[in-house]
Amino acid sequence: MLDISKLKQLRQETGISIALCKKALEESNNKLGQAKKLLQQWGIEKVKDKSGRTTSQGSIFSYIHHNRKVAGFIELLSETDFVSQNQEFQKLGTELSMQVASIPAKNQEELKNQEYIRDTGKKVSGLLNDAVLKFGENIKIGRFLRWVLGE
User: Looking at the keywords, is Protein biosynthesis present (predicted)?
Assistant: First the structure.
């Protein structure tokens, strides 16, 4: 029998659809840890499936550090304008622009392999993969720029 409180908790912690959370809990006999692993495994498969899709929509995000000496700009791309206007997508873009301002990266691969500044247990690529799972669309980083005063 499905534990509704665990379903709510899993949904809240992962942001993944209720249907997938329910399926993961059913297959793991209501064990949260196993359900999260299943979601992650399924997510990797979904990310691979969606990685070839065209990302012609999106938004540009910026972050200027409080000392006004460093800024980060990033173009975050999605398949549809509907997703790019989503509040969670907007939050991800803001977080990634802060990441760009905080740690220099020469190219996208370097940026994706960085530890996420707010959670060193995650990489930037993991944030993108989580977004693909949440939105059901391909999400990619386009261009990015780190601007430092005087450089």
Answer: yes
